[in-house]
Design a protein that fits this description.
With about 325 residues, this protein is mainly α. α4 packs parallel to α6 and α5 crosses α6. The protein is globular, with a radius of gyration of 20 Å.
Length: about 325
């Protein structure tokens, strides 16, 4: 059972997230008032509003919700599993390995074959990282071993991405790779929604399954084992959930950092601080934060639309520094 200090937390987050999502549909080169948005969503409204909202902005909004929810949930699960408040999907190399798979698809032209090839390559990269983690960590169930193995995999993935940029056959290919690495959900269609949806659904199902086991792990591996937690199966489910869910999300949105780091820290004070209690709030909070960040991208005046990954990085750094300063006072 997932417990919350404030019973209205999850309903309030759901209402706020839905409201922000509807408001985001009105932002863009052509502003559309809420009344006209509701008219289109209820099957009315004129053809131009319908084309703008349904064909252009609705897929972008849905992808923002799905990707944000996946990243927020993955961050909360990894912080609970690794007992590390600075853990996020990139800690285990999943994000960077997925990015490497997508970069490989762009570099070798595989992405041009079919719209699904980029996500497939990204998920393959995340799953290869998963296999490498199991190989490097061996039979160890220690979070420290997984973190060290994840750092190794992540560093290797970043080195390969840098190599691809360095050996890029032409400047246009390098620019395409760099634009993707900066992260964005601009110009997405319903094809992208149908690609990311099953990946996120599978990833969320695997990650939400083990809430009580995460609570037991707060007592340590021996304590969790004494309570009947099967640690190898738990690790397999969590790593598969992160690989599939984050791999699919990264494939569609590009590299978007810090969501998995920021959101659990924002949600934790509103709950009883047990790992299971922040899972649903972090999922909703991630969707809310990424959707709000995408709105900020469209509001900030610039000659070219800012990349979403840049905005989330600027939001994430203060949280990281605040935690660092608080820990330094405890030393």
């Amino acid at each position: 059972m997932m417990r919350h200090r404030h019973p209205a937390l999850v309903p309030a987050l759901a209402i706020i997230t839905a409201s922000v999502a509807i408001l985001s549909l009105g932002l863009g080169p052509v502003s559309i008032p809420v009344g006209r948005i509701m008219a289109v969503l209820t099957g009315h409204g004129d053809a131009i509003d319908r084309a703008i909202l349904i064909d252009l902005r609705l897929p972008r909004m849905l992808i923002g919700l799905l990707v944000g929810a996946m990243l927020g949930l993955a961050g909360a699960v990894l912080q609970g599993y690794l007992r590390n408040p600075l853990a996020e999907p990139s800690v285990l190399g999943a994000s960077n390995a997925a990015a490497l798979g997508a970069v490989g698809a762009l570099y070798f032209g595989i992405a041009q074959w079919h719209i699904a090839m980029l996500p497939i390559m990204a998920i393959a990269g995340a799953l290869v990282a998963l296999g490498a983690l199991f190989f490097l960590a061996g039979e160890s169930e220690s979070p420290l071993t997984l973190i060290l193995a994840g750092i190794a995999v992540s560093t290797l993935a970043l080195a390969c991405i840098s190599l691809a940029l360095n050996l890029s056959p032409n400047p246009f290919a390098a620019m395409e790779i760099m634009a993707w690495l900066l992260g964005s959900i601009e110009n997405r269609s319903f094809e992208h929604v149908w690609i990311v949806l099953p990946c996120v659904a599978i990833g969320m199902a695997l990650l939400l399954y083990d809430g009580r086991a995460l609570d037991a792990l707060s007592l340590g591996e021996d304590g969790a084992r004494s309570l009947g937690v099967d640690l190898p199966r738990l690790r397999l489910r969590l790593l598969l959930g992160v690989a599939i869910g984050v791999g699919g999300a990264v494939a569609v949105s590009g590299s978007i950092g810090f969501i998995g780091l920021i959101v659990p820290h924002l949600m934790r004070p509103l709950t009883d601080r047990s790992p299971s209690a922040i899972l649903l709030p972090s999922m909703l909070g991630g969707a809310l934060l990424l959707t709000a960040s995408d709105m900020l991208v469209r509001i900030i005046p610039s000659t070219n639309e800012l990349k979403l990954g840049v905005v989330t990085a600027f939001l994430g750094v203060p949280v990281f520094l605040a935690h660092l300063l608080r820990e330094r006072r405890l030393w």
